[in-house]
Design goal:
There is one protein chain. The chain has 2 domains: about 1-40; about 55-210, Beta Barrel (Porin), CATH 2.40.160. It is about 25% helix and about 40% strand. It has helices spanning about 1-40, 55-60; strands at about 80-90, 95-105, 110-120, 125-135, 140-145, 145-150, 155-165, 175-185, 190-200, 205-210. It has an 8-stranded antiparallel sheet, covered by helices on one side. Strand 5 and strand 6 (about 145-150) form a beta hairpin.
């Protein structure tokens, strides 16, 4: 009687093991299929248009695509270059602090946003921190309504910012902080143009433009 009881139990265990193996194989297949689907449907940050800087940064962090070397047509960096530029509201002369931007010959980017400014309501803003880091991405080609310009060299950097805001009547004081991004284009003559974007929640953001005709000596 004891042998007769053990036989169906052993058969049941084998059946459970087979089912377990099948489930594991199915899960492995699902994970592999999902990863292939995600890779095939993930936008290429070098070719995708109208990306927010935080979305582009996230894509570049996840991308397995190697960063290509600077091409013969693109701007060459003769050693480290530094730009001291005034950030402004786009299309105006209204200043929004200063940006010290560094680009090394190896394509590494560094920057620091600093200074103070006021808005139309005469609220004052004191920039306490705006350091960022990044690099150049030669795979991204400049394009506008006139077509492509492969001579421009694209860069993107990210960091943290903190701003102290004082209301015009000096009765209210706020500390604002979040992520800061700088991105733009370096030309073969080493002039530069780009934008600073600050955001606290990746929903609301402010954009300031900058440009310089040549690096600082």
């Amino acid at each position: 009687m004891r042998n007769k009881e053990l036989f169906p139990e052993s058969k049941s265990r084998r059946g459970n093991a087979v089912v377990g193996i099948i489930i594991v194989l199915l899960l492995v297949g699902l994970v592999y299929g999902f990863q292939r689907y995600r890779k095939s449907h993930t936008p290429d940050p070098d070719t995708a248009q109208d990306l927010t800087p935080w979305k582009e940064w996230q894509l570049r962090e996840k991308s397995e695509k190697p960063v290509p070397p600077v091409s013969e047509k693109q701007a060459k960096i003769p050693g480290a270059v530094k730009f001291d530029v005034i950030a402004r509201l786009p299309g105006t002369e209204n200043p929004r602090g200063e940006l010290a931007l560094f680009i090394s010959s190896e394509g590494q980017l560094g920057g620091n946003w600093s200074g103070s400014y006021s808005n139309d309501k005469r609220d004052s803003f004191d920039i306490q921190g705006g350091r960022l880091d990044g690099k150049v991405y030669p795979g991204k080609i400049y394009q506008d309504e006139k077509g492509q310009d492969p001579s421009k060299l694209y860069f993107l950097g990210k960091g943290k910012f903190m701003v102290h805001k004082t209301s015009a009547d000096a009765k209210q004081y706020h500390i604002m902080g979040g992520d800061i991004y700088a991105r733009g284009w370096l030309n073969p003559d080493l002039s530069v143009a780009g934008e600073i974007i600050i955001t606290s929640d990746e929903k609301y953001s402010e954009t300031f433009s900058f440009k310089a005709t040549r690096p600082e000596k």
